[in-house]
Write a structure and sequence with these properties.
- The chain has one domain (2-218).
- The protein is globular and about 60 Å long.
- It has one helix at residues 124-127, and strands spanning 2-12, 21-28, 36-51, 65-69, 81-95, 106-109, 131-133, 144-147, 159-160, 166-169, 171-177, 203-218.
- 2% of the residues lie in helices and 42% in strands.
- The longest helix has 4 residues, at 124-127.
- It contains 1 helix and 12 strands.
- By secondary structure, it is an all-beta fold.
Length: 224
Amino acid sequence: MATWHPDDASVNEPSGSLRLLRQRTHQQSRAPGSNVIDQEYVETTNYLVLDSTERDRAKFPSTSSYDMDLSRVSSIRGNGFANVHSVELVRATVPDANGVAAEPYLLVRVSDQLAGRAVQGNNDAVSDSLAVLSLPAAASTGNFIHVAPADGNGFAPTAVFPDAPLASLTKLQIRITDREGTPFNFGTDTTPPTAPNKALQIVLMLRIVTQERRRRMLQAQPVF
């Protein structure tokens, strides 16, 4: 039987604000009297903030449809995330533009690898999504709309890999779409070298849980 050890929990904040790490240790119990391999699972919770301002605007002019190579994000150690157990949308901020408030909901898709892992629906666009966003009213017209599914603004279940972790998550395909799966047009952003239009940018926060297995050989213990 496996048990969690909450006393092993720790919080580490690396330089930069992209990720907040939380670690827990999951240790497998062992039988006395024999040499066994002790397995210890370290679970790390990563909070990843995605800002459309940082996309390749020459290649992806739309703030609602772009790809991101995580290996190029300096605050992520290594080539993206390894041994991914789950991914969840925590928060989204979208512009109050082009009549978006009239949409019944928006769909958030972040990776082809997560399709069908979180939301199920009667069309492919919903089933391929990580979250369904119901938009509350903006604080003021033309401002931003902040959506936190945990507060009842939509539905954002956790995409889980229960049998075995996803080996790697190195690239994201960010799509904010209408119910038919078409990227929503929030407006025309500027092109480099002009600075991005702040009023049209989208920010997403993801909670990504990874697991690392560690092993060590234990010496035989006498049984009395």
